[in-house]
Amino acid sequence: MTGIRMRGRDNAPVTVNRRTLLRTAAWATPVVLVVAAAPAMAASAPAFPLLITAMSAGSGGNSTKVLMTFSGGTGLLTLNFVQLNGNGISIGPNSLAANGGEAIGGGQTYQLGGSYTVNYTYQGTTFTQPVVGT
Question: Which 3-state string (H, E, C) describes the chain?
């Protein structure tokens, strides 16, 4: 096999042989694979170790207080701070179980659809996790 015959920019005949074609493909393949994988990794959501729910703490006087429930972990976590729509709220206790632990906010801390930011330390790592009031 003599190769593929083409014309170059100056209209002169150019021959591409099999060795050149394979060498180019071998160098280009890793680049194509890395570029193809990058969008999938960039679009993935951050992984949080715990599931956190924010709901009303009950009825009557407690209906305006937020109840945060933590699940999916083992051992304890430290609740560093909680914000509602960017403003810090009073909530406790600060040390609770990572599976089934509950923290209750004081005063007017529950908001249906509210945007909560929960900052906690679990197994030596600090996480800041968004939670929507349900």
Answer: CCCEEEECCCCCEEEECHHHHHHHHHHHHHHHHHHHHHHHHHHCCCCCCCEEEEEECCCHHHHHCEEEEEECCCCEEEEEEEEECCEECCEECCEEECCCEEEEECCCCCCCCCEEEEEEEECCEEEEEEEEEC
**Is the entire prediction scored with pTM above 0.85?**
no
pLDDT digit string, tens, across residues 16-42: 677 776 677 666 656 545 555 555 555
Tokens coding 50: 């715990």
Which residue shows structure tokens 């709901």? 55
Farthest CA pair distance, the chain: 88
